[in-house]
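Exam revision sheet. Question 4 asks you to relate a sequence to its structure. Input first:
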Amino acid sequence: MSLALVLIDLQNDFLSPNGAYARGDCVNPQAQALPAHVLPLAQAVRAAGGMVVASQFTLWPNTKGEPMISPHLKQMRPFLRAGDFAPGSWGQACVDSLQPVLDLTVQKVAYSAFFKTQLDWVLRRAGVQQVWVGGIVTNGGVASTVRDAHMRDYHTTVLADGCAAFGDAVHQAALADMGTVARVCTVQEAMQQLQPR
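Answer key, structure tokens:
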């Protein structure tokens, strides 16, 4: 099957009670529920011969060990500090429950999982034509990845209940916007599509 499920930024520093975002009192219960919700779909995708990819938002350290954070992110998330989302760290890693189903991880420095990563190269060599996208946040990493997948001529689907934002109104507006370039469906509808016919 020429399908990849791309999960955006379901990482410890975003989602764990011991992660950077929890330390900064920036907890998102809808996001925290996503790994358990998308795990059965990830397992089904692999069972059907597809691949499961995770992006890892990464804050690379400078020569003094301080994270290189874009100014807009530093303004929004002033609690971020050295060690958060660092390459190879526990915080940068995807949550434990998803580790067994991942075929590939890509480290990213901006919203889209395609921006300056090897994702497109790997997907094309794997023969992938369909890209299903879930993760966080709907109006950020998910939306940017969906639009980049569309621009690269993948048949793109966004999982409406497989992603989350800070607020339902923002989530719904982002889904409506992505509906102009991608199919929007639920995790259950995606699961049904994988059933033998």
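Marking note for examiners. The radius of gyration is 16 Å.
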